[in-house]
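User: I'm preparing a small set of examples for a lab meeting where we compare how different chains pack in three dimensions. I only have the primary sequence for this one, and I'd like the structure in token form so I can line it up with the others. Please keep the answer compact; I'll paste it straight into my notes.
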Amino acid sequence: MIILIGLNHKTAPLAVRERLFAGCEEENNLLPEFLAIEGVTEVLFLSTCNRVEVVAVIDDNPETADKLKKTLMKKGGLTGDEATCLYIYRDDEAIKHLFRVTASLDSLVMGEAQILGQVKDAYRQALAQNSSGVALNRLMHRSFRTAKRVRTETEIAANPVSVSFAAVELAKKILGTLTGKKILVVGAGEMAELTGTHLIGNKAEDITVVNRSLVQAAALAEKFHGRAAGLDTLDEALSHADIVISSTGAPSYIITESMIRRALSKRKNRLLFLIDIAVPRDIDPSVDNIENVYLYNIDNLQNIVDENIKNRRREALKAEKIVDEEVTLYSNWLKELEAVPTIISLRTKAEGIVRAEMEKAQGWMSSIENGDKEKIEVLVKGIVNKILHAPVAVMKEESAEFNSQDIVAAVRQLFRLDE
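Assistant: Understood. Below is the structure token output for the 419-residue chain.
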């Protein structure tokens, strides 16, 4: 049985997630501890800021799942009331949940790419500690395949759904490329940092950070391999920039119409793109009336974000179909896997019968030449394989569609494999 136990941003408040995350992060022998629970044969542990989950291959004993759950609760010091934050999925539900997580359909921001790397890290850890076997290995590779299909066959990650990312995408759309463009980031707070990260990710190279605090500007500029300047140099900086992205916490406009007009006179009326993602606004909206100046504010960007969220939801419907296909493929493989020991037993018994009968026939076969003996042995084995082909094929096919345990039990009884 495949089981998945955990909690995430949908089921648990931040305080509970933080406690469980911290409790599990402190443990170095977490996987061996889970694996030591009787009935657990394979296990993987995933821990991020938004979710903590255990995926395991276990026996059918209900106590095994309960022990896993209690061990996880103990790590985070979860109370009885907080246990309601945990979800438990079994077999196809567990497989589907894992595939949705890996494909970023269950993320706080649907379509984000970070979760795939986190799941891969969790799998590497399981491999390193020998806690992943045949079933989990196949399960994880299937989950990665699912994520790849979702990314290549849908456009779920094609459009930005954060204001800072939308600002960078807009700048890239306007200029075609950010390579070689002079970019001015005004402000050094969280939004400015996020914007700068997206800029670097889109191959922006020439970044200047301007801020009231030169120390903060320098700290942020260092991350982007850019330059830092104080707010008193803003006039000069505007005259060189191709794109200005402003996100300070100033209570009033820090970029005025007169400043832009002065900058344009120095830059010989070269186009200037201004993106204001501050609340309240940093840039006087009247600058949008100046020729060769294009101003976008947070409302413009939010409209883009809202439309992109709708697009992602539409693409998610396609992604869910891919997940369902992959769940069926893995589930069928798993059912076939359950029949493998019986198939091996059946072949072993048949080979044993062949050997025993050949030994009995040694008396009358002694007068036959060795070459002919080998031919007889090949003939007998060929007949046995032909006879076994049908029941083995049926076991594989039927177990994939129906209850493999019933098929397996019937074969074991018909061929008396347990005697």
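A couple of notes for your slides: The first strand starts at residue 2 and ends at 8. The chain has three domains: 2-153, 163-305, 332-414.

User: Perfect, thanks.
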